[in-house]
């Protein structure tokens, strides 16, 4: 699936202007191509078995209207905090479609999740003990897994790599293998394994290797529990998210299809067609649960093909369908460089401003009416934000046609991990967020631009 082109963005923006959706105060606006998002989602579903729970990472895009859309299409969520869990519940997500992953859950939060029947991925053995104690006093429909670090190395972005020798997340497989085996043998309620290798910067091979390592361990644990308890205890397998996207025209993204195929080759049981007889196994086992149905209960009958897969893709789902546009308020010329002063900077693009070598976008220049500008500028351009520190520069040395005041700069591929990381520093009004279908045939305001009351409420 191609990223959105400057031509498509210009056309949608012109339609939004004509529809009166860009008011004077909308000096910056975030857009989501919701048709594109829906296409992404259906391609995700087509790559994995029908019973897969796709827990889309809320942290990438917690916008209620977008989450509602994904819920209606049958997708679940991966929640990194109790705030995200409660947001999902408030929006009507079935608790069985919520995967709760925080590494610092309190006893109260664990109790809440267990009572609600949310799928829990535990981070460590202390948390496991807490859950064990809680389960002695309460009834729960939750399925429970544990996060395991496959220790296969780090990707190119250190800050978002979590499967190195050391990680603050999960239980390291090589260091704690025996303790992990004992945890499964001693706790019948522990029926899932979870990993996440990293977000962006991890190549396909690394992601597959991480899943492969954990898959082998799952087979070993299931063999041991089959011998001692008579059933395969691990019935859910959560591969996390992390498939990188392309932020630049020059770099080809890794297609989800290629990733799923490589996973299928390395970990075939995760992909077996569970509703069909498997060659060599005339008994097809229990039918595949319908998408959206609760996860299989721990201790379900011993069928190696009754494993339920969970995915947690955030960046891949949301990034490419979103783009941001800012009016150029001022233009400054210095020897060797010119600067376009924009209405978004480090408040919306925290990572880009603080760690520019790892986070680069494509930029397109549109004139005041939304038409692409062409031509060459003498100087390269710095794209500077409105905040009061010198590091508030979104990009340096960008090659653009001559920028004029009143033009618009489009920042491509901003649908994930941008607005969700919005910073309150300098108390700027968070921009209006607009969704559209069919290249701008229809629009929906996803979130209104903030008013002064929103800022006062935050600081009061
Ligand atoms: C546990 C977990 N799952 C899923 C994700 C989503 O990763 P991505 O957005 O790269 O798919 C993250 C991202 O940090 C994560 O920490």
Number of strands: 19
Mean pLDDT across every amino acid position: 92
Q: In percent, how much strand structure appears in the residues?
A: 15-25%
**Number of discrete domains:** 2
Bound compounds? pyridoxal-5'-phosphate
**In CATH terms, what is the architecture of the largest domain?**
Alpha-Beta Barrel
- Helix/strand-derived class? alpha/beta
CATH superfamily annotation of the largest domain: Alanine racemase
* Highest-level CATH class of the largest domain: Alpha Beta
CATH fold annotation of the largest domain:
TIM Barrel
Helix content: 25-40%
Distance between the termini: 45 Å
- The best one-word shape is elongated
Question: Order of strands in the sheet with the most strands?
Answer: 2-3-4-5-6-8-9-10
Biggest sheet descriptor = 8 strands, parallel, barrel
Runs in which pLDDT lies below 50 for 5 or more consecutive residues are 275-295, 299-305
- What's the alpha carbon Rg, rounded to whole Å? 24 Å
Number of helices: 12
Q: How would you sum up this structure, described in words?
A:
- The chain has 460 residues and is an alpha/beta fold.
- It has two domains: 6-31 and 321-459, Beta Barrel (Lyase, Ornithine Decarboxylase, Chain A, domain 1), CATH 2.40.37.10; 48-316, Alpha-Beta Barrel (TIM Barrel).
- It is built from twelve helices and 19 strands.
- It has helices spanning 6-18, 34-47, 64-72, 82-90, 107-116, 125-137, 177-186, 204-229, 256-266, 315-318, 350-354, 452-459, and strands at residues 28-33, 53-57, 76-79, 98-100, 119-122, 144-149, 171-172, 190-194, 236-238, 308-311, 322-327, 330-334, 337-341, 363-366, 381-384, 393-398, 408-411, 432-437, 442-447.
- The strands form three sheets. Strands 2-3-4-5-6-8-9-10 form an eight-stranded parallel barrel, surrounded by four helices. A six-stranded mixed sheet has the order 14-17-11-1-18-19, sandwiched between helices. The protein has a four-stranded mixed sheet with strand order 12-13-15-16, with no helix packed on it.
- Helix 5 (107-116) packs across helix 6 and helix 8 runs parallel beside helix 9.
- It is elongated.
- 45% of the residues are buried.
- Pyridoxal-5'-phosphate binds next to helix 10.
């Amino acid at each position: 699936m191609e990223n959105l082109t400057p031509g498509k963005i210009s056309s949608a923006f012109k339609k939004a202007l004509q529809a009166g959706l860009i008011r004077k105060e909308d000096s910056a606006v975030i857009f989501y191509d919701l048709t594109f998002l829906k296409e992404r989602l259906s391609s995700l579903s087509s790559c994995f078995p029908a019973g897969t729970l796709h827990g889309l990472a809320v942290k990438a895009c917690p916008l209620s209207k977008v989450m509602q859309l994904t819920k209606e299409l049958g997708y679940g969520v991966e929640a990194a905090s109790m705030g995200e869990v409660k947001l999902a519940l408030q929006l009507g997500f079935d608790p069985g479609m919520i995967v709760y992953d925080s590494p610092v859950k309190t006893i109260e939060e664990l109790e809440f999740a267990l009572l609600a029947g949310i799928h829990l991925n535990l981070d460590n053995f202390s948390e496991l003990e807490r859950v064990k104690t809680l389960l002695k006093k309460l009834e729960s429909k939750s399925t429970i897994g544990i996060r395991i670090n496959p220790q296969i190395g780090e990707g190119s972005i250190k800050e978002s790599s979590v499967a190195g020798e050391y990680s603050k997340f999960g239980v390291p497989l090589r260091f704690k293998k025996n303790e992990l085996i004992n945890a499964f043998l001693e706790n019948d309620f522990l029926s899932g394994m979870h990993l996440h290798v990293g977000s962006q910067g991890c190549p396909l091979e690394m992601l597959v290797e991480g899943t492969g390592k954990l898959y082998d361990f799952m087979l070993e644990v299931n063999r041991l529990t089959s011998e001692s308890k008579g059933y395969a205890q691990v019935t859910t397998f959560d591969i996390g998210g992390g498939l990188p996207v392309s932020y630049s025209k020059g770099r080809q993204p890794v297609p989800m299809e290629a990733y799923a195929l490589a996973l299928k080759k390395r970990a075939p049981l995760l992909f077996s067609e569970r509703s069909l007889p498997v060659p060599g196994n005339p008994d097809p086992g229990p039918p595949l649960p319908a998408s959206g149905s609760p996860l299989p209960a721990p201790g379900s009958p011993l069928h190696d093909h009754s494993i339920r897969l969970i995915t947690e893709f955030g960046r891949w789902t949301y990034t490419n369908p979103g783009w941001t546009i800012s009016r150029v308020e001022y233009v400054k010329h210095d020897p060797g460089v010119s600067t376009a002063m924009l209405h978004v900077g480090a408040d919306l693009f925290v990572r880009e401003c603080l760690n520019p070598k790892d986070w680069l976008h494509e930029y397109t220049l549109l004139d005041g009416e939304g038409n692409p500008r062409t031509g060459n500028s003498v100087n390269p351009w710095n794209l500077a934000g409105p905040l009061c520190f010198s590091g508030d520069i979104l990009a340096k040395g960008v090659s653009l046609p001559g920028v004029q005041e009143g033009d618009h700069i489009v920042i491509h591929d901003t649908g994930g991990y941008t607005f969700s990381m919005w910073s309150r520093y300098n108390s700027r009004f968070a921009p209006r967020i607009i969704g559209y279908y069919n290249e701008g045939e229809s629009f929906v305001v996803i979130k209104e631009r903030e008013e002064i009351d929103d800022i006062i409420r935050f600081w009061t």
